[in-house]
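Standup notes
- DV: blocked on the single-chain target, sequence here:
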Amino acid sequence: MRVDVLALQRFYASRLGAVAKNAAARRLETLWSSNAGLDVLGVGYAGPLMEPWQCGARRAVSFMPAAQGAERWPADGASAVVLGDEMRLPFADSVFDRAILIHALEEAEAPRQFLREIWRVMAPEGRLVVIAANRAGLWALGDATPFGSGRPYSRRQLGRLLAEAMFEPTASAVALHALPWGWASPLADGLERAGRLLRSPFGGLVMMEAVKRLYAASAKEGREVLLAKAPAHAAPHLHKTDTSD
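- DV (later): unblocked, structure below
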């Protein structure tokens, strides 16, 4: 069962929610400094992270699962929220250049099929960032925050799942090194800096970028199989990083 949208609203309106949002946003900015002229999709509860792209992106849409519920986004102007079935996204094939998943994958009933549906609506060579609760982090151990709901992931597990859904992981990071208690919020910035410097694997969030691929390796024959028409212009090659724990 998904975390209700009202619970998500209350969390992100709190000091602890601001800490979580800022930690994820800083990491996301290092990957996607600009989305000017691109079509961007947020899935789950991505609105807080998509705020900087409201003006620059050609189109920014926030999809919220029906079991979660929806809130208005953005706060000003025309609403860009879609509520529906996460396993049957109401979008045409190959539409979005970028996609962000947060509070989405952990509670999906069929994670691989869910990611394949995300794959369907993304443009060839489109980039996806999944933000999920880290299996090794404190935030996944309790239910006081939304990151304690559903199934958490390690980087290895998340990388394997994305590969099975025809995405190629290109970069990963652990974020949210602050402690998951409100009294510790004043220490958040220092703990976040220390966690990045020490490359601690115990942060609350695992974040992974992946690229939509059009080829898959055949398990039986060990050769590539074309699953979709190749794009006319491929995106610039990204340096592949190790996604193991």
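- Follow-up: The first helix runs from residue 5 to 12.
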